[in-house]
Amino acid sequence: MSSTTDELNDKFKQDLKIDQEKSSQEETTTSTDEVKIKEIKLKDKYKTNNEDLKEANNLKVLGNKAYTATEYQNAINYYNEAISLLKKEDDENNDTNNNNDSDNEDDDNNNNNNQNINKPKKVNKIIEIRKNTEDDIIPCFEELSILYSNRSACYLSIKQYDSVIKDCNIALEFEPTPTSIKIKIYHRRAQAREQLNKLKESLEDYQEIIKLDSSFPQAQQALRRLPPKIKEKEDKEREEMMGKLKDLGNTILGKFGMSTDNFQFVKDPNTGGYSVNFKK
Description:
two-stranded antiparallel sheet, extended, mainly alpha
């Protein structure tokens, strides 16, 4: 009887060990799969074929011509189509629907000066988005990065700064190879951020440019110009915060016959912080 019990215990232990090993293997497999999913980069997501790549480049050329002729909305339309063609999907950051009628008020006059530009009059698709096929084996992250960068230049020219930042963010996610393209993207985003009073973020972009090209003049100027502005902005925000805290303190302390005048705020010149002293 004791021998049988021992055998059963040994079998139970062996089965338990096997179950634990299987569970451990499943956890490892799941963990590996999760890591693989996380490692997929935007630059590896989209591939195209020769026909679509050629058509997208033709659209980019038309967009560049429109941009040079200061027909910014028309240039945006061309870049939209090229992006959609390569991605095989509509672009989420497509602001064509926000088109202002005023952009096309002078079309009749402009047609005389820009007869070589086949300008789209409507938001209707120039090309039809095709589904992925087995021919889509050509990486197109460089082309997409340039298209987003070019479109950001259009948005910058018409002062749609939020759209500039969105397009630049995406362009950088595609990890373009040429240093000149990276500099253009950082510079456009830096300009847009400064216009939106995001001075620290703008300075960070200019610092990235300096890493790529220490002689870039606009970045050199920004590194001298922005730090004092950032300090002034932070001091102003700090003073406004202290004012609001003082108003709140007076509301609460007033119930006890006191006010913030009973407290002396002393600013530390080294850290910029404050200490509080009570006075009667």
